[in-house]
Amino acid sequence: MATMLEAYLEESFSAHWQGSIDALARDAMGREVQLAVAERPEGIVGFVCWQRVYDLHHCAVGGELTDLYVRPAARGWGVAGRRSRATGSSSSCVR
C-alpha cells in the first residue's frame, strides 16, 4: 500500500507520501477514515479513501470520497467505478 500511495501522490501532486504504515493501519480501517483496495492477480491496483458524513439537507448518512487512485496500467478496466460503488458495503476489496 505504501508504494501505491507514493505513486498516487507523485502523479497527482508531485509530492512524496509523508505518512507511515503504522499510522495508516491505526487510522484507515474505520477509526478515522475508511480505506478499500482493488486487487488483481498482480497485486493492489487501486484504492479509495472515504469518510462518513451526515447530510443536513436530506437528514441522511453518506460518504465523502477524499482520495481515489488506480494505477495507470489498470485504468479503463472499471476499477474506480466498482471500488467507489462498493464503499457502502462491508467489503474492503474488489477483484
Instruction: Give the uncertain stretches in residue-range form.
Output: 89-95
Overall 3D shape: globular
Mean pLDDT: 84
User: What strand order characterises the main sheet?
Assistant: 3-2-1-4
Tell me the CATH superfamily.
Gcn5-related N-acetyltransferase (GNAT)
Per the CATH scheme, the topology name is Aminopeptidase
Oligomeric form: single chain
Strand content: 25-35%
Number of domains: 1
Structural class: alpha+beta
For this structure, what is the CATH class? Alpha Beta
Specify the helix fraction band: 25-40%
What is the rounded distance between the termini?
A: 16 Å
Biggest sheet, in brief? 4 strands, mixed
Query: Number of helix segments?
Result: 3
The count of β-strands is 4
What does this structure look like?
This protein has 95 residues and is of the alpha+beta class. It has a single domain (2-94), classed as Aminopeptidase. It has 3 helices and 4 strands, in the order H-H-E-E-E-H-E.
Note the topology.
Elements: H1 2-13, H2 21-27, E1 34-40, E2 43-55, E3 60-70, H3 79-85, E4 93-94
Parallel strand pairs: 1-4
Antiparallel strand pairs: 1-2, 2-3
Key structural traits:
globular, 4 strands, Aminopeptidase, 3 helices, four-stranded mixed sheet, 35% strand, alpha+beta, 95 residues
In short:
This protein has helices at residues 2-13, 21-27, 79-85; strands spanning 34-40, 43-55, 60-70, 93-94.
